[in-house]
């Protein structure tokens, strides 16, 4: 026969303990089932012996209260829908009016700007503008001619020095 060790003894003890727990659990389950059925029977008997009457006044109050709450909820829901609809309508109306006002203001501003530009153009002294343009062009041409003459002089001076 094989040697019987401490580990073997512990395994056998654990198995025995587990079987004992299972037996105890089944026994407790049977006892609880018995007690539960006795309680159920007692409750059924008690229910048969007693009756609870609810007065019409209590029922009516409950129905009235429930109806009021349902009406209140429905009214709040509809009021919310109406308020949202009004908000959207007002927002649309405001956008439309603002757009119309901007278009009218643009037309007015457009005409005002055109009128002011025409008025300012009439105030321009064309002779003075011509004189200013002629002076600027003359100065520019003189500068360019002067630069060209200087370049030619430098070129000519360089050729004279080379010829000497």
Can you give keywords for this protein?
single chain, 164 residues, mainly alpha, 0% strand, elongated
Structure in words:
The chain has a domain at 1-49. The protein has helices at 6-49, 56-123, 126-163. It contains three helices and no strands. It is 91% helix and 0% strand.
Please sum up the structure shown.
The chain has helices at residues 6-49, 56-123, 126-163.
Query: Which strand-content bin applies to the residues?
Result: under 5%
**Apparent shape:** elongated
Please report the distance between the alpha carbons of the first and last residues.
Answer: 141 Å
What is the chain-wise order of helices and strands?
Answer: HHH
Mean of the pLDDT scores? Answer: 84
Poorly predicted tracts of residues: none
Structural class: mainly alpha
Largest sheet: none
Helix content: over 70%
Q: What is the helix tally?
A: 3
Strand tally: 0
Please state the CA-atom Rg, rounded to the nearest Å: 56 Å
